[in-house]
Amino acid sequence: MKSPTRSKLFKIREDIPKKWYWTGTIATFVVVLIIWELMSIFQVVQDTFLPSPGFVFTTFIQLISTGSYWGDIGISIYRVFMGFLLAAIIGVPLGILAGTFKISDSIIIPLSEFIRYMPAPAFIPLVMVWAGIGETAKILIIFIGSFFQLIIMVADDTRAVNKDLIYAAYTLGAKRWNTLIKVIVPALMPRLFATLRLIMGWAWTYLVVAELVAADSGLGYSILKAQRFMNTNIIFVGILVIGLLGLIIDRLFVVLGRVLFPWSGGER
Amino acid sequence: MPIEAESRTEEGRAIDVSHLTKIYHTTKKEIKAIDDVSIHVDPHEFVSIVGPSGCGKSTLLKILAGLDELTEGKATIFGKVIEGPGADRGMVFQGYTLFPWLTVRKNIEFGLRLKKMSAKQKKETSDYFLKMVDLERFANAYPKELSGGMKQRVAIARALANNPKVLLMDEPFGALDAQTRSDMQQLLLEIWKREKTTIVFITHDIEEAIFLSQRIYVMHSHPGRLAEEMNADLGLFEGSELVRPNEFLQMKDHIVSLLKK
Ligand SMILES: Nc1ncnc2c1ncn2[C@@H]1O[C@H](COP(=O)(O)OP(=O)(O)O)[C@@H](O)[C@H]1O
Ligand SMILES: [Mg+2]
To answer: What structural domains and CATH numbers belong to chain A?
Structure first.
């Protein structure tokens, strides 16, 4: 293939060869790493504040060869999934109802809109009063952070289902219940999946918030503990591991979406 | 032009609409989409409604399908007042309304599944209609793999598989290119002749209406009113061949002049 000229690379919203896309992505990562390395070589920032990439990497290897770090990872993943699942199991049906029936909308949406503007971290002290600092507290914070947002987004997804599909179902003899179960729900699935993927991202954020404030285990707590002894290398590893886990889960969502909805076109 | 079926009673008619008026209430104003329209369709008849965009064609069809309510007047299907949607009135829409998560075969079987038809009967029925629209090879394809013409063929098959008393079609070929469109018109005529379906067909394409239908209603816009009813079953075509071009052009010019008024 001829190497694309500049005019080809900068066509508005047109595709470029995959090779070029990956080149761009990898180059960015490499450049960030190089700048970071240079900064520590020339001592632009003190080692205690900015450990070198190499040091962070060896810390990473050391940490993941200890069982206790895997314990932190495990408990964090457990909390995220519990909070996320709880929000999804209750929130998805409510969102679908709100997006389908105007009367459910009137009951569910205004309240959710109101609560969603209350920042989840502000609930932490209250949650600690209610539930102490046990697992329930952390799961509850993740739940509060994602639940109301989820309802609103799922309701939007449901409303976005093409009305002509509903009309078509009616003219084929479907009554309301069948139309909801056999048309609205399947039609909604790809969008719902994309929403769940986004909410999962937020669940991670609230996890760390919860663990920074009210925990004695988990990745967030490991970061907090490292701060006490100025172990910035461990803080870096903590942040990177949380990011990596988030990325892996996000990719799993994408792959799973492709497997589950081969019929769906358009969305990535 | 007077029509011989004038003497039929309401019960004998597939569709009877009398003095139908439809007003939409929006927050700002009232829109009179249809004003005092009366039409009728006899069993096995192919009737077209022609009119400019915005004259209330889709509104009228939606009311017949039971998807919308009329404001004044009366609409019946085989003598029964239309009170909501039902499997007795199949519909084909202008946009693509196949269920994207179902294969072509499953789309065609959608209505049959609701009727809890046995697996064997379902298969036989979908086989028959897949063959009718010449899509046997695509039975297991998803809608996204089909061209526009193929999608509309599935939509027609899906509606007919349900064995409706009346087939309502709202500009079903409006989004297709000229060649596909004329192929589809011929296919539809063949199907109509074979299945003896009652068809109400909406279009803004005058030639399409003359080619397909036995009778044509011409509508005006703002507000949507009936301009004229005419017989189009004059043997202008033999197969797809236009054999009486003069009459054809005369009729076309007449409709064009009606629409200009
Ligand atoms: N749901 C609606 N609410 C308000 N006005 C509508 C609605 N549906 C159609 N109309 C109006 O009614 C008129 C007829 O529309 P329509 O039946 O779609 O016309 P056509 O199918 O002949 O193009 C138009 O002026 C349109 O704006
Ligand atoms: Mg229309």
So the answer is: 61-264 (1.10.3720.10)
What's the confidence (pLDDT) of residue A47? 83
Q: What is the ipTM of this complex?
A: 0.92
Check which CATH number belongs to the domain holding B49 and give it: 3.40.50.300
Q: What is the DSSP letter of B26?
A: -
pLDDT tens readout for residues B84-131? 999 999 999 999 999 999 999 999 999 999 999 999 999 999 999 999
CB contact under 8 A, A167 and B93: yes
User: Is B241 a residue whose pLDDT tops 90?
Assistant: no
Find out whether the peptide bond into B223 is cis, omega within 30 degrees of 0: yes
Alpha carbon distance B208, B201 (integer Å): 10
**B158 within 8 A of A172, measured Cβ to Cβ:** yes
Q: How far is CA A83 from the centre of its chain?
A: 12
Which amino acid is present at B167? L
Cβ–ligand 1 distance for B125 under 6 Å, the answer: no
| Residue type for position A266 | G
**Please, which residues 164-183 of chain A have a Cβ atom closer than 8 Å to chain B?**
164-165, 167-174, 178, 182-183
Q: Considering its fold, how many domains does chain B have in total?
A: 1
Angle made by CA atoms A6, A11, A14, in degrees to the nearest 5:
130
Contact call for B95 and A178, based on CB within 8 A: no
Tokens of A174: 């479907």
Read off the pLDDT of residues B169-178 as tens digits, 9 standing for 90 and up: 999 999 899 9
d(CA A161, CA A155): 10
Is B118's C-beta closer than 6 angstroms to any atom of ligand 1? no
Give the Cα separation of A1 and A15 in Å (integer).
15
pLDDT tens-digit profile of B188-235? 999 999 999 999 999 999 999 999 999 999 999 888 999 899 999 888
